[in-house]
């Protein structure tokens, strides 16, 4: 078993608007974490993404804040609303296990169109084949925003940004003590516009090592340390 990545999640002292503006505090003060290919035999030397994704995470004691900044020259999506199969198009995703047990986790997703997905996953065997998905769960108080910028305009800075504020209470978690550890992973699916459901690029914070790409492998989740 290869070493799992660890991410220290800083605590911030102020709230801020959730508007998908990537050029504001606290994001401008946090070093980005680059997602890389989710698969491959060597998690320490994974392929660099063709269209990179920068991840940033922090918290304020009541909410977990997550920001994705996705380079993308052809961001697209056809689905809208809640709990459509947006993972068949282009999305960013977070899998969060506040209890520290990665066999039960919360799945949150967003697309460039602002469609979103929220579910509880019970994965007792650690494999997709026997996992169960609860689509009735609602992440109460989840704030989210998406911004698409410059796509198709031939300018630098083309892509899309996602910003979330996720209440700990919605995840059944109390205000964290410093040093508390969660299991988690973060992903992006980038698909060719003309090939819905095939091809594309699958990137992750913690490599799942699966070929073909498979994100529902909780034993491969990394570790979040809430400061």
Describe this structure in words.
By secondary structure, the protein is mostly beta strands. It has one domain (6-11, 20-226): Immunoglobulin-like. It has no helices and 14 strands. Strands 1, 3, 6, 7, 8, 9, 12, 13 and 14 form a nine-stranded mixed sheet that branches. Strands 2-4-5-11-10 form a five-stranded antiparallel sheet, with no helix packed on it. It is globular, with a radius of gyration of 16 Å.
Rg result: 16 Å
Briefly, what CATH class? Mainly Beta
User: Strand-residue fraction?
Assistant: 35-45%
- The shape is globular
Mind telling me which CATH architecture this is? Sandwich
Name the descriptors.
Immunoglobulin-like; globular; 227 residues; nine-stranded mixed beta sheet; five-stranded antiparallel beta sheet; mainly beta
